[in-house]
Automatic annotation (TrEMBL):
It comes from Rhynchophorus ferrugineus (Red palm weevil). SUPFAM superfamilies: Homeodomain-like (SSF46689). InterPro entries: HD (IPR001356), Homeodomain-like_sf (IPR009057). The keyword DNA-binding applies. GO terms for cellular component: nucleus. The lineage of its organism: Eukaryota, Metazoa, Ecdysozoa, Arthropoda, Hexapoda. It comes from the Eukaryota. Pfam families: Homeodomain. This is Homeobox domain-containing protein. GO terms for molecular function: DNA binding. Coiled coil: none annotated. It is found in: Nucleus. Signal peptide: none annotated. Keywords: DNA-binding, Homeobox, Nucleus. Residues 44-88 form the Homeobox domain.
Length: 89
């Protein structure tokens, strides 16, 4: 990952005279890229871990389709998808 970042930085430094990027913009590019990488790591560390009981409750609530209006159904689908993703990691 870092090698790709350094290659990109080197590429931009090489093209800077032709593209008229000041050095500050090059530094900003690297900072933005670094912060997005750290943000992904932060999000990964905050993933929710559901217990088996919570997952079962979500599945049961999700399957009661005939009694749920469409908006509520969409909310449950989103919760269920988030729960499934959290369980996978």
């Amino acid at each position: 990952m870092d090698s790709g970042l350094s290659e990109t930085k080197t590429l931009y430094e090489g093209l800077a005279p032709y593209l008229r990027f000041p050095e500050t913009q090059l530094r900003t590019l690297q900072t933005v890229t670094s912060s997005s990488i750290s943000r992904k790591k932060e999000i990964k560390s905050k993933r929710i871990k559901f217990t088996e009981q919570q997952r079962t409750a979500l599945e049961l609530e999700y399957k009661k389709e005939p009694y749920i209006e469409p908006i509520r159904k969409a909310e449950l689908v989103e919760k269920f998808n988030v729960a499934q993703r959290a369980i996978q990691f």
